[in-house]
Design goal:
alpha/beta, seven-stranded mixed sheet, 235 residues, single chain
Length: 235
């Protein structure tokens, strides 16, 4: 909330009010039900709620950060936003046709399971879950095997986990979901974080490499910064 209070301005919301979904444009339009009730679980500044509403979806948002929700309403106007704890939702069973969760469940130190059970509970039978977590992709796995990351984290506060495809899919299946498809996205973030030599290059060369990388299928499918899993509650 401290970060959002500084960064979130009327200009921040303008592209979302215009319906821009950025990384999620194709994925959401391919999978989300146009007529169903959608919940963004952990909506933060509610920018995706704003963008989905602008695209004609029936969407509401829920987050623990009540001040962020208040600020979103102050700037954008009336939005269906609710403050609540994703671990213990005060929502009846079998309510939503789809639940979106973007970069949320990885922040629970004891694991994402309690969130996944709650989201499954509020989904209708056959309902859709679109969930995104940091991706421990092949590039990061390769670097980890070569000692690139710090082993001793004494003195640091816990922030988040990253997951491989196999690991996160197993967690979802154990929580009672059926996996439909998997994407990775934001590969440019992954490249700039992991390839330190890239950041030492002149800006125009760096931008050129990142632009070209958009057209390399393996980079787009396997080296994303984030993993998006589309899963379903069994009918």
């Amino acid at each position: 909330e401290d970060i959002w209070s500084k960064d979130v301005t009327p200009d921040y919301y303008k592209p979302f009010q215009a319906g821009k979904l950025h990384n999620f444009e194709k994925i959401f339009k391919r999978h989300l039900p146009k007529d169903g009730m959608i919940l963004e679980a952990g909506c933060g500044t509610a920018q995706l709620v704003v963008a989905l509403e602008a695209n004609g979806y029936n969407c509401m948002g829920l987050d623990y950060a009540i001040n962020a929700l208040r600020k979103a309403r102050e700037i954008v106007g009336p939005l269906r936003l609710v403050s609540g704890d994703l671990a213990t939702l005060g929502i009846s069973n079998d309510v939503f046709d789809a639940v979106i969760s973007i970069g949320v469940v990885e922040h629970r130190r004891s694991g994402p399971e309690v969130f996944l059970y709650e989201m499954r509970r509020i989904l209708k039978p056959g309902g859709l879950l679109m969930i995104s977590v940091p991706y421990f992709n092949p590039l990061r796995q390769w670097r980890a095997r070569r000692g690139a990351y710090q082993d001793d984290v004494t003195g640091f506060d816990f922030y988040q986990y990253a997951f491989s495809r196999e690991e996160f899919c197993k967690i979802l299946e154990s929580a009672g979901y059926e996996i439909e498809t998997i994407y990775s996205y934001a590969h440019q973030n992954s490249l700039t974080q992991e390839l330190h030599w890239l950041n030492k290059m002149p800006d125009f060369i760096k931008r050129l490499i990142l632009r070209v990388s958009k057209h390399v299928p393996y980079v787009n499918s396997e080296l994303g910064h984030m993993l998006m899993v589309v899963a379903r509650k069994p009918a």
